[in-house]
């Protein structure tokens, strides 16, 4: 039998999109080369040691759901699915800081949203009619606004829909794309509790989603190079002919492929004429060196305050605030003190402000509005050996880990299709 020639692919960027593409292609027996401009992998989904708190923290708190099939499948492929932990069934404790009302949304573990039929499992004060009023959102086009598809008011909106869509879209929901919001609702609330069990990388994002992927790649013979920033692409005969990294250049063979999995700004600089989203929104995360009190749930949704989601890790409490542009210029000490006061109210803690860190990502995600969504390119480019990946590309979802992994998987599948031509 003739020996099979191993094909070569260059992955530019070692964020979650690039890593998922690289793992998929390495398992398909490609010779994989990963080139990352930074000195570590993970992009916006990574962990690091923080001297201010004396802890290893995540640059952002990321929540996955059991129905995020691509992300869970990626963790499974690198052997870390057990590192995504959560309750046995889909349940979400909520607290309203305005009146200290507390309730738990119980979605169960079925494949149908039968929880909406049960008064005891719904958001308190809501009826089945309130949930049926969300139906126009489910199949709305991406060009429509959420605020034009549903009424953005009332108990259900304030206590469930608004927190869910704010976290997913990272914009005030009424101005967000109804099509993107509908995709989130279809894959979560409409899919029943089976798809909604919350999953958290309890030991850190890097330990669960990043470092094991890099180790797997290197063990499979892939080359993963950090501090290797792509400066220029050379184009010839409808293909990428060479990769210029400044100090060195790599000429591509006739069957080599490239996956460009970098953020939109460098992608626009490298690729003439490619359209990318140009407006972004901030996310603010706060981390406190304080062990959660006994019985503290791993995740609590919060309404009526500054905090939106409270995460309890073994040795710290962390919060996430989406659409955070209004907070990026506030004094850090003031912001930390305000957040800690709310945490004390939420948890019953009576303690002075512990060691803390505020992480403000000014360009955390693209604006998930109809205007910016229309600027997201697909994975196919004008060069037949180059495909795009990233949560900012047209994945059909907002900028999420699930969207990142799907884009990486899709890019890998396209590379394999190129190789079969």
UniProtKB/TrEMBL annotation:
Pfam families: Amino_oxidase. InterPro entries: Amino_oxidase (IPR002937), FAD/NAD-bd_sf (IPR036188), SQase_HpnE (IPR017830), Zeta_carotene_desat/Oxidored (IPR050464). GO terms for molecular function: oxidoreductase activity. It comes from the Bacteria. Residues 16-415 form the Amine oxidase domain. Transmembrane segments: none annotated. This is Squalene-associated FAD-dependent desaturase.
